[in-house]
């Protein structure tokens, strides 16, 4: 091979060098549909060798669900010699499948013969709703071969001239040798003929090399024009568009670019940073890489300036003296990608804001269950920060007795991929454990693939306590009703036996006992009915003016007549209120009955009526043992029954709750003043008449 041929690098070798430096995935396929080249970016992404990817080997990295669709689209496009765009998932070196956009274009030789396909792949993972990481696509540089073709031809001509001089010298030497050795004329003719043949062959070789160089220049130009990304070459200080491929021209539809300085073709960039960047690359010879760079630019000559985003590389081009004489541009517009990514980011931020204003604790998990976000309610409730509870740190908040159950349910939900719920106790910032209902639901993308878990924890401590109170109430109500019913039945059975032969001393007692049992049953039923009416807001209030003192004098006559307790009135006998006398009597009776029940040693019970501004205070005071401070907040709750010194008392735990609701419906207030060892005073405040 000649010296000129050694200096010529094939077009495909030049393209492969350029492709290996590009930060996108590029490939070449022959006419048999088999791929025979993958650039460095491709091999780095897949973590495989050229031998492993050769032919159809690279298809092992396509997601199994995407391979049939890819194969059909690829085959149809290849057979029809059309450009194609195919989306599929390609396995990265770490085993993760990422969505790719594969663009391919047919290649042709100088005589129009189909030579195969050239293509590139762009990572569009986040734009597809999963993850977004847009790679820069960079050319390795461009060959200076075209620019120096004239120099190479001149060198070849010089070599030819040198060869001719050498041949002439050899002829002289041969003539001298012929005289000295007296060689025959025929021998000299043969030698001359041989030398002439060498000259002709050498000349033919040089001409063939020149033609091959021109052919390679055309092929390299076609490679540029068919590349699946925007490529252009700008030359001279004014950066005149010398070469513009189809994809680059599509960025500026309707504009004339070739042969124009960049400021004439795209004047709107003059006062923008991008013009300074171009000048810097040309004058300093330093390559510049831009990633998602904003360049306000119109698409057409008369179109509006738009905010457009690009990934690009500006690489200086040099002549034989290593001076910068132009810039090679490799560019892809990523406006849609950037806008989509920002929309996704805004959506994620709005989602987190919505979680932060939720009254429940909320969080998200990765598909493997690791927590990657908590809302503000979590931090407020636990008093911990993200570093303390990220990943699996949340386990420190779970009650020790519930932890294993929590982990079992957690694992079951994650493996089931459908969601679920369970109840556990979680520690509050003050160290108190409260019951929570935990719910977890899977969040899936449009392909049905799990991308996250969404979890909430609702505080159900009060609901748990209410449920327990209801359970207790059912048990208590059954017991409380059973006692007077049993007593009534016993009295009736004895009366039935004695009906034909009544015993004078026993008969009245049995009737009295039966009446007391009936009154107790009626009292319990009335409490249940009142509680039901309150729940349904059907408790009626019939208001009228009446005197408090008169109400107190007629209240609880059975206690007065019993002679065991003395009901003492204190206060203003002329005070009047506007309310339901029957319901106020019900409240007052409940206060007096509680005094008798819970302070049996207090033989004197005081009934108090006082004016407090625009209100009348009605109170019942005893001198009993008093009430513990921790029990007072619960006294007016439904189903609550107080215990004193370990004693249990009968009742449904509805009396004070009903009294509280009656008072509220009068626009009044209810309360208690109590001190252990000094008795209790239950009171209500009602608007004065």
From TrEMBL:
<dbReference type="InterPro" id="IPR003594">
    <property type="entry name" value="HATPase_dom"/>
</dbReference>
<dbReference type="InterPro" id="IPR036890">
    <property type="entry name" value="HATPase_C_sf"/>
</dbReference>
<dbReference type="InterPro" id="IPR035965">
    <property type="entry name" value="PAS-like_dom_sf"/>
</dbReference>
<protein>
    <recommendedName>
        <fullName>histidine kinase</fullName>
        <ecNumber>2.7.13.3</ecNumber>
    </recommendedName>
</protein>
<dbReference type="InterPro" id="IPR052162">
    <property type="entry name" value="Sensor_kinase/Photoreceptor"/>
</dbReference>
<dbReference type="InterPro" id="IPR001610">
    <property type="entry name" value="PAC"/>
</dbReference>
<feature type="domain" description="PAC">
    <location>
        <begin position="84"/>
        <end position="136"/>
    </location>
</feature>
<dbReference type="InterPro" id="IPR036097">
    <property type="entry name" value="HisK_dim/P_sf"/>
</dbReference>
<feature type="coiled-coil region">
    <location>
        <begin position="153"/>
        <end position="198"/>
    </location>
</feature>
<keyword id="KW-0418">Kinase</keyword>
<dbReference type="InterPro" id="IPR013655">
    <property type="entry name" value="PAS_fold_3"/>
</dbReference>
<dbReference type="InterPro" id="IPR013656">
    <property type="entry name" value="PAS_4"/>
</dbReference>
<dbReference type="Pfam" id="PF08448">
    <property type="entry name" value="PAS_4"/>
</dbReference>
<keyword id="KW-0597">Phosphoprotein</keyword>
<dbReference type="GO" id="GO:0000155">
    <property type="term" value="F:phosphorelay sensor kinase activity"/>
</dbReference>
<dbReference type="InterPro" id="IPR005467">
    <property type="entry name" value="His_kinase_dom"/>
</dbReference>
<feature type="domain" description="PAC">
    <location>
        <begin position="420"/>
        <end position="472"/>
    </location>
</feature>
<keyword id="KW-0808">Transferase</keyword>
<feature type="domain" description="Histidine kinase">
    <location>
        <begin position="476"/>
        <end position="689"/>
    </location>
</feature>
<dbReference type="InterPro" id="IPR004358">
    <property type="entry name" value="Sig_transdc_His_kin-like_C"/>
</dbReference>
<keyword id="KW-0175">Coiled coil</keyword>
<dbReference type="Pfam" id="PF02518">
    <property type="entry name" value="HATPase_c"/>
</dbReference>
<dbReference type="Pfam" id="PF00512">
    <property type="entry name" value="HisKA"/>
</dbReference>
<dbReference type="InterPro" id="IPR000014">
    <property type="entry name" value="PAS"/>
</dbReference>
<dbReference type="InterPro" id="IPR003661">
    <property type="entry name" value="HisK_dim/P_dom"/>
</dbReference>
<dbReference type="InterPro" id="IPR000700">
    <property type="entry name" value="PAS-assoc_C"/>
</dbReference>
<dbReference type="Pfam" id="PF08447">
    <property type="entry name" value="PAS_3"/>
</dbReference>
